[in-house]
Each structure stands twice: as C-alpha cells, then as structure tokens.
Write a structure and sequence with these properties.
About 10% of the residues have low confidence. The protein has a single domain, classed as Jelly Rolls, CATH 2.60.120. It is mainly beta. It contains 1 helix and 9 strands. A hairpin with a 4-residue loop joins strand 1 and strand 2. The strands form 2 sheets. It has a 5-stranded antiparallel β-sheet, with no helix packed on it. A 4-stranded antiparallel β-sheet has the order 3-8-5-6, with no helix packed on it. It is globular, with a radius of gyration of 15 Å. The longest helix is centred in the middle third of the chain and has 4 residues.
C-alpha cells in the first residue's frame, strides 16, 4: 500500500501545452488519470473500451455524444455523428461528476480551462 498527497494545481505546467494527461494509477481493471485542457481545446470524437467516470476539479467542459446510446431502442432517438444538432451534450462544472458506458462515441471540449479526473474501469 502507498500514500501520496497530490495537489491538482501542481500536476500540470499550464503554460506549456494545451492538453496534458497525467497517469495517476493503473491496475489490471482500472486507470486513473488527471487531465488538463486549455479553453476551446478538445479531444476529437473517440470511443472508450471501458466504462468512464469523470470528476471536474476546476473549470468547465462539454461532453458530446455523437451516436445512439444504449437506451435508444427504448427512447427512440436517432443521433448520428453528422447531425450535431441532435447530439447529446452535457456541460460539467467544478465538483460535478459524470458517468457513461463503454463503446459510446464522444468528444470533449473545454469551455474554460479545466482539470478533471478520468477513471476508466
């Protein structure tokens, strides 16, 4: 077992890069990362092969889901990557959490400079 106190503000050199990812912990079943993004930067559309949990430490971001989610057979929505107006968008601010299932195409945009924890499990 180990113990380590970490200050989120000390993880990144905010002047160097627009996006920075720091691995904090990795096990066979889970990955914990700290992510920094400058305002208006984004991670383009991608898919996670694991379930995802996000916790916003500071700042604000938007998660955009470009395709049908697992409940579409029930709710009947018809989201495609080409139809941004129908995309599901969620704004997350400091101290908010968000979870979503694996295999869902999404992108992330920083609405303000943001630091968040990303847990993939």
């Amino acid at each position: 077992m180990f113990y380590k106190k970490i200050e989120a503000k000390d993880l990144f050199n905010k002047k160097e890069e627009d996006k920075q990812v720091t691995d904090l912990l990795e096990t066979e079943n889970a990955h914990l990362k700290a992510v920094y993004m400058k305002k208006n930067n984004s991670f383009n559309s991608h898919t996670s092969h694991t379930n995802v949990f996000i916790y916003i430490i500071e700042g604000e971001l938007e998660i955009i889901f470009h395709e049908k989610h697992s409940a579409c057979n029930i709710c009947g929505c018809s989201i495609t990557e080409d139809d941004d107006n129908k995309a599901e968008k969620y704004k997350l601010k400091e101290n908010q959490m968000f979870m979503f299932e694996k295999e869902v195409k999404h992108s992330i945009k920083a609405l303000k400079d943001v630091i968040f924890l990303l847990v993939k499990m």
